Structure formats: C-alpha cells, structure tokens
C-alpha cells in the first residue's frame, strides 16, 4: 500500500477535491516546469544532501523541544514547545524558503518573488536569496508594513526590494495578488516562492514536504524526552504551513489528537476574523486553487481580520481542507484577546516571546491544558515575537498597565 505522502496530492495536485491548479494557459506552462523540476530534483542525492547540509550548518537544525515548567504548573497540563522560533531568521518559514531557493538555483532562475503578511516569510526568502546570490522582491500590504516594521527593515538589510501593496485591505490577500501579477510579468527568469501550503499545484505539496522536517524532528525528540508520543499536537493555521509540517508526523497516530488553531479576531462576524474552516461554509477558488474559504453572498472571498498579520487570509491550504472533511484534525479558534494574553503569559512565565501567530496556538494550549490535566500537549511555536513587540505594547500596553 502506498504511503500517505505518495497518495496525496494526486498527480493533478488534488488533496481529495481540494487543490489543483487553475491558471491561465501561459502561466500554467511555467508552473508545469516547476512541477517537473521539483519531482526530478527532490529525488536527487545532490539536492537532498545540499538541503540537509544547509539545515544543519546554516539554519541550526534540529530545533529543540522544550518543556514549559511554569505554564504546566499553572494549567495542570504538560505543555511542550517545538522551538521553531530558534530556527535561523526566527520562524519555520526558512525550512521551505531554502528549499524553494535551492530549486530556483537548479532551474537557473535569477529572481525570487513572494508575498508576505507578518514578514516572516519575506525575511526568510530574503535570507535565502542572499545565501544563493539571487534577486528578491517581496510584496507586502501597507497595513502589514506599518505593523511589522522590524521585519521590513530586516528584508531591506538582506537586500530584498519590498513592494508596498496599496489596494483593497492592503494586507495578505492583496499581497498575494500583487506578487502573482509580478510573476506573470516575468515567469522565465523569476520563480514565485509561495509562503504557505496554498496556491496552485505544486506549491502546497512542495511547502508541505519541506516543512515535514519539523514533524520528523519533533516526534523523535518527544519520544526521547518522554518515552511516548504527545497526547495532543497544536499549531496555528492561517495558510497552514507550520501546522502541515508538524502534523505530518502524527497523521497515523490514533492516540494523538491534532488541533489547528485559527484566528478568531474580534468576533465571529464576517470580516472580523479569519477562521476559515471553523466558520467557512463553502469551498471555492482563490489564487489558482480550490479550498475552503470565507466568502460573501456573491461567492467572492470576504475581507478578513486578525491581530496576527500572518493569519489574516480568507483561504487555507487544500490539505487542511481535506483534513477537515475527514475529521483528521480538529480546527478551533483563539481570538485576539486570548492571543495577546498568551503572548504575555509565555513571555513572563517562560522567558520566550512568541510571534502573534504562534501565540494563537499557545492560547488554545493553555485552555486545553486546563481541560486535559496531566495530558501532554506539544505546541509548534512557529516563530518568535521580535517583530510584534512594538505593535503589541503600543496597541495593548504592558500587562501591569491594563486589564487582562
């Protein structure tokens, strides 16, 4: 019997009924070249060896698993973190960016184009471009540029050109639109490096495959630490790359419950959250692929919101859409207030400042630990919060100066 990863996606890029590639014919020809190159190169000893060397000697992998003593005492559960915040550049994003840039190098591309929301993907891709000596162009909404200024500076220091996106809500969806348009204008010398498990085939598969290292490491590390598998695995979900990475190692473990935490924002009113699968009632096309997405009455992707710029996307990865239908993963919600509280709790109880995206996963883990006392909870801490500290303090204040 074929393994799960050889079955999904199928040769057309579908995870069940989700995924695929719905692009203009000219662009589809270029994307097909990427698909062919990935299938060829990903089986190459030279490609695999170089990527492994990069992960060990440049990225600093493996990242550790850490037991949260004080948070565990506070909640009654046993909370562990997979420390992707310690991956070079401060998030899990470099796992797939180095892979995508290495693929671009083998294809003879000279330029990397991408979108970014929180800026972590942009920083990671700018890092990869500098490593390989490639041009880099990052499209970012004006709203997110203001919120995530430290990451904008990091991208520019690394040599990337940051393109402000000024239309629509000026956030992640519009940044994806802008980056796609830029790629359409130069598909021969450039490659579009999508920042999550979204987009047309082969991107959801490629990003998932590059992120599997997180789950492989975490499973082995947790077994070494405890002698058993975690009872629960928790990760935040916007597009869903960090979650796809860590979940990949536990899909066949019936005793391990998986939780994808979506952003509840301000309320469950359409336009005030980005809880695509928790609240989305239909599937449709967005950015060249099929997935669950938040739509208005006309079937157009609706405006979304989250305090975490990396989570405010109206769609989600097609693999996650399939997991929802199959009941493989429990998709739940943490709102802005819970995420901000978790941001400070982890900072002050454990000395770890999380990214606001990751704080959503921590927030749910804190609730789950109180419900499932004495059970183990492994949280994928997908990024560090350096980028968020000015925004959080300016908008919400320090805990001692406000009501929690």
Layout of strands and helices, then pairs:
Blueprint: H1 4-7, E1 14-15, E2 18-19, H2 25-41, H3 45-59, E3 65-67, H4 69-75, E4 78-83, H5 94-107, E5 111-116, H6 120-132, E6 135-141, H7 142-147, H8 149-157, E7 161-165, H9 172-184, E8 190-192, H10 203-226, E9 232-236, H11 241-247, E10 257-265, H12 276-279, E11 282-286, E12 289-293, H13 318-326, E13 330-335, H14 336-350, H15 356-371, E14 376-381, H16 389-396
Parallel strand pairs: 4-14, 5-6, 5-8, 6-7, 9-10, 9-14, 10-13
Antiparallel strand pairs: 1-2, 3-4, 11-12
Give your account of this protein's structure.
It is a single chain. The chain has 404 residues and is α/β, with parallel strands linked by helices. It folds into 2 domains: 22-56 and 93-204, 3-Layer(aba) Sandwich (Rossmann fold), CATH 3.40.50; 60-90 and 212-401, Rossmann fold (3-Layer(aba) Sandwich), CATH 3.40.50.1100. The protein is 45% helix and 17% strand. It has 16 helices and 14 strands. The chain has helices at residues 4-7, 25-41, 45-59, 69-75, 94-107, 120-132, 142-147, 149-157, 172-184, 203-226, 241-247, 276-279, 318-326, 336-350, 356-371, 389-396; strands at residues 14-15, 18-19, 65-67, 78-83, 111-116, 135-141, 161-165, 190-192, 232-236, 257-265, 282-286, 289-293, 330-335, 376-381. The strands form 4 sheets. Strands 3-4-14-9-10-13 form a 6-stranded mixed sheet, with helices on both faces. Strands 7-6-5-8 form a 4-stranded parallel sheet, sandwiched between helices. The protein has a two-stranded antiparallel sheet with strand order 1-2. Helix 11 links the parallel strand 9 and strand 10 (257-265). It starts with a helix and ends in an 8-residue tail after the last helix. 56% of the residues are buried. The model has no long low-confidence stretch (mean pLDDT 95).
């Amino acid at each position: 019997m074929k393994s799960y990863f050889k079955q999904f996606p199928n040769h057309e890029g579908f995870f069940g009924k989700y995924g695929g590639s719905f692009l203009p014919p000219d662009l589809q020809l270029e994307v097909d070249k990427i698909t062919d190159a990935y299938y060829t190169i990903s089986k190459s000893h030279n490609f695999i060896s170089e990527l492994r060397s990069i992960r060990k000697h440049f990225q600093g992998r493996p990242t550790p698993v850490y037991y949260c003593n004080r948070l565990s005492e506070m909640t009654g559960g046993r909370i562990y973190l997979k420390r992707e915040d310690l991956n070079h550049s401060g998030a899990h994003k470099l796992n797939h960016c180095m892979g995508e840039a290495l693929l671009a190098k083998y294809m003879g591309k000279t330029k990397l184009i991408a979108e970014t929301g929180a800026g972590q993907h942009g920083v990671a891709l700018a890092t990869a471009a500098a490593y390989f000596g490639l041009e880099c162009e990052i499209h970012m909404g004006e709203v997110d540029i203001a919120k995530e200024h430290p990451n904008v500076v990091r991208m520019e220091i690394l040599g990337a050109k940051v393109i402000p996106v000024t239309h629509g809500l000026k956030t992640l969806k519009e940044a994806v639109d802008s980056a796609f348009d830029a790629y359409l204008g130069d598909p021969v010398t450039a490659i579009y490096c999508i920042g999550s498990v979204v987009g047309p085939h082969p991107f959801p598969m490629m990003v998932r495959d590059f992120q599997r290292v997180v789950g492989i490491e975490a499973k082995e590390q947790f077994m070494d630490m405890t002698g058993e598998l975690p009872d629960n695995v928790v990760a935040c979900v916007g597009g869903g790359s960090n979650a796809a990475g860590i979940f990949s190692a536990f899909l066949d473990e019936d005793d391990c419950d998986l939780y994808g935490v979506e952003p509840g924002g301000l309320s469950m009113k359409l336009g005030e959250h980005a809880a695509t699968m928790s609240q989305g009632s239909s599937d449709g096309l967005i950015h060249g692929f099929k997935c669950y997405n938040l739509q208005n009455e006309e079937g157009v992707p609706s405006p979304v919101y989250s305090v975490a710029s990396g989570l405010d996307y109206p769609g989600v990865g097609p693999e996650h859409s399939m997991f929802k239908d199959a009941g493989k993963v429990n998709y739940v919600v943490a709102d802005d207030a819970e995420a901000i509280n978790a941001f400070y709790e982890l900072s002050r109880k454990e000395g770890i400042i999380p990214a606001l995206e990751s704080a959503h996963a921590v927030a749910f883990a804190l609730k789950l630990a109180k419900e499932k006392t004495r059970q183990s909870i492994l949280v994928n801490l997908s990024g560090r919060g350096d980028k968020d500290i000015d925004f959080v303090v300016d908008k919400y204040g320090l805990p001692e100066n406000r009501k929690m």
